[in-house]
Structures are given as structure tokens and as C-alpha cells.
Amino acid sequence: MSYYIDTNVFLNVIYREPALREKSSSLLKRIHDGKLQGMTSAVTLLEVILDMVESGFSGSTELAVASIEDIRNLEIVALDKTMTKLAADYVIKENITIHDAYHLATALCRKARAFVTRDEDLTRKIAKHIKTVAPGETE
Asked: Is the pTM of this model over 0.90?
């Protein structure tokens, strides 16, 4: 079973965030090396690009996206109509953002082992639907 990797884990590494990078990078390396299986949504690529442009790093988006796409054993899942309908329910009933709803719907539809995120607010909102863990808490 795969771990679902939230966008913030990739951004920890892309932005080389001192307090967060090490565990996120280690997790992604373990996936790349085949010690763990990972998945993320195609929405993650969108979020990475938008965040980087907003943060003034528009010239580096292609490299960042390519580095995510190059992680072996990381499946980038395209949205389908089931995930889209489920995401709409989560936006309406759980009051989470559209992007987070896509992430949750993808993780649930693809039966992720756990949802890996650093977003504490999101963790509170989705904990009743799926196990959540921080990057350093994967097996």
C-alpha cells in the first residue's frame, strides 16, 4: 500500500526549509529507493507551480516539477470523475479547500495506507476519514 504525499512535503524539499527538509527529503528518498510506495495527485504539480510563482520562483518551476516526476515508486494520480464527485462532497460537508479535497479523495479512492502531511489544520479535518502522519512517522 502506498502513502499519499501532500504538497507541503515536496515544498519542504524544494524550498530547502531548514527545520522541515530533512524528514521530508528522507521520506521521498525512501520512496525513490523502493523502500516505500508513494502516490500524490496531479493537483500537487499544480499547487507546486502556483506556490513557486507566488513566491517569486517562477523560473524554477519546470525543474521542481521534473524532480517530482522523476521520483521512482511515486505514482502521480490523475483525477477521475469519482474522485471529483467525492472531492465536491468534502468541500461542501467538511469545509476543506478544493485542492485539499482533491488530495483526500485521491488518497481514499486509491486506498492509501496513510496521508502524509505537515498541515495540522487539514489533519484535524480529515483524521476521521484516513490515518494522517508527518513525514518522519512513516514505517
From this structure: yes
